[in-house]
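new request in #modeling-help
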Amino acid sequence: MYDLSLPWWAYALMGAGLVVFIGMIAVSVRRNHGVKRSLFASPYTLWMIIFTVLPCILVAYYAFTDANGAFTLENFLNFWDSNHTKNQLYASMGEAAAAYITRGTVNVDTLVYSLWMAFLCTMICLLLGYPAALFMADRRMKIGPTIVILFIIPMWMNFLLRTIAWMSILEDQGLINQLLHFLGFDGVKLMYNSGAVLLGMVYNFLPFMVFPVYTSLSKLDPKLGEAAQDLGCNEWKTFTRVTAPLSLPGVISGITMVFMPSVTTFFIPRILGGGNTMMFGDLIESKFLTEGNWNVGSALSMIMMVLILISLGILRKFDPEGEGGGIA
Amino acid sequence: MKKTGLFFKKFYLGIILFFLYIPIVVMVIQSFNAGKSRAKWEGFSFRWYAELFQDRSIMQALQITIAVAVIAAVIATILGTLAAIGIYAMKKRSQSMMMTLTNIPMTMPDIVTGISLMLLFLFTKVERGFVTMVMAHITFNTPYVILSVMPKLKQMNKHSYEAALDLGATPTYALTHVIIPEIRQGIVTGAMLAFTLSLDDFTISYFTTSPLVQNLSTLIYSKARIGIDPTLNALSTLMFVALLVLLVIVNRRTADNAA
Amino acid sequence: MMEQEHLIDLKGICKEYDGTQVLKDINLYVRKKEFVTLLGPSGCGKTTTLRIIGGFEYPTSGEVYFEGKEISALPPYKRRVNTVFQKYALFPHLNVRDNIAFGLKLKKVPKSEINKKVDRMLDLVNLSGYGKRHVDQLSGGQQQRIAIARALVNEPEVLLLDEPLGALDLKLRKEMQLELKNMQQQLGITFIYVTHDQEEALTMSDTIVVMRDGKILQIGDPKRIYDEPANAFVADFIGESNILRGTMIKDELVHFAGHDFVCVDSGFGENAPVDVVIRPEDIMIVGEDIGQLTGTVQSVLFKGVHYEMMVSTGEVTFKVHSTTMQPQGSKVGINIVPFNIHIMKPMQEEAPSDV
């Protein structure tokens, strides 16, 4: 299983890289009587060029070419034409397969649905997470750091398994329905709909809202609150006029950290949505792996990247220093 | 009045935590269920724990997961620490260029990172498998190492390195005996972060490996459609307990060191 | 001075960063056991000069000589100089003793000798018994002493100090000035000291090098620098002074403030524009009727040892230091003896404002 074989040129490339790096250091030692420290970054730079810049260029290349490698804008233009995509699928894969793949939705619908779900997820996380962070930062309780650890511990369990565990709770024979039956009620359908997907998303991404908000709130000088009260604010006004505005950087970075993975998630809708819902991540994945259409898949990836960059740009406006910076 | 406020706050946090823990509790309980059904409790048993060690595909996935995480974390830590030191020594402009390069994979959604790497491997006709998965993990881990080490470098007195040279240290000695010890905490944090991220990664692994070489996440994913059997629950319960023990030990040690 | 007595020689040192010249043709020598201070406002190039001597920067052009041998390209760890850094740069992961022993361990000095030397150093800086302490448990003043001990224990030929007292409060700074000067005389080591504090420079130095905009304006002992500043900038930077526009009528006769004064300078030519510098304590307040000039006292400030009065003659206002006070508004006479009138070429000609 540890098959380490790579094409011969890959080894040649690595060897050449190593020789060049050592050579550069040797030259710099000669010239400067010491290693120039900025050279230390060169293996990383090379690595990033091969494994980040080059792949991005490849995505762009496939997005702007057709199956024969000729330049085209069709991959993007067709994005807006739902019927075109659908007809193409019918033609290429037969009716049954196409029905399975598209699941009744196509590009624009999927995009709008993904954005809407991500928006809902972000809002719910904010509504649930902000009070939690605020209460954790309450100095009288001294429990903030403990709660942070309690938030982190569940993340050690494989997130796929945690999501699957929700199935046992939500499904027709699951915990909630068993409880309802036991109490004499009729069962409810909880799985395989947008609500279940949303629940799974909020469950997975809530900590990413709580952490940055908590960090920015706990950094606040408690004297600020005292000063506000001294100047005549009651507790509510202290919150709305002082605490809330000052926690804005944390909120912004929380929104970023929840929104981005929400738009692109493709595992949660598969499990909890059971194929009835499709998000943009699923669409991209199926273009590549089910249909094998790299060109359209790459175009979709680029559209998603552009959307994310735009939203990041907008969010950056509110937090130019990037000081809300979350995880660390 | 004040007291009820505090009670309400604790109650709220309790509910949120309940929400976070309930699937985990369900998983742990299922791992001790004698039957295979997710819904019916058929009695307490260690059956799945016994089966776990018999299951070759799970044991292999575990092995691969740990091997990938360790190798990727070690290489990413070396690469990232060197890079951080290098970037720190650069002039303003190249510094901000390098930080932009570092931020690219962090802003990119996992799925795009995974797909772009998959395209790279397909384009260059490198067969996907263990090595490509390690490469992909190094790629997304290294920026996190840099971001953990960088602040420590910035906190360092900027003359520390020169002071060592001044006292007769060669650049190599100054690096290993002054700079590295001073940023050690950042390096350790970065390494732990890299290890954890790699352990838990699904999306990027999914696109950069072959069905023959699976880590736990991709294995779980491939089984999710057929139905998860409780052996996986048993496994993650064990891993969870192991990590908890590790946390307690680490906490003890840091507490001892601080005293 | 004969060449062999020079310990360090800087010849034609220029330094450029990204196209900006920070040092322009620096020529300087330092003798054995001398206490030399590089003095100037921030950005004048004094720290860069020090770093070139220390080996942390390499000159764009020009050479550095150490005992007559060129060392321009030698890295810091091969030079027989040690540095006390701004903000000390003590190694936070080592305790006090290991910080001081750092250089000796690198030289593979035997353990017993290291211990002996470190103890002697701790003694010298009055911190014996602090060896096991962690460096961040020390006060600023103590860290300062450790930084000095860490450098001195290597018995360098030259000790470079980059604003070492900058972070200390006034009282501690004065104490450390004396201590440093004593240490230097006791140990017989050459000190090159960088500061922007003119008082510090005057107190401690054998030689002061006044710098501005990457150039050396004047080199000399403190008394000479104070009494005979080379130009108006030096006069203004070192101590307080009245700087006036004037005209040299002929040798030993200068016109300023609407009056002709006899002076001792010559060689400026006839009717040449000059800068006239007069120290506030060199202006004598006399009776209104016997003064060369007359004026009105505009304001009086008590400064501890003396009074500072602003006296306006109508044409110019003089700052005067005197131990006797004249009330505000009173008419006084002003006398200046020829010896205390310093004539210098106008600044514009000497320092082109291309920076």
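bot summary: Chain B is about 80% helix and 0% strand.
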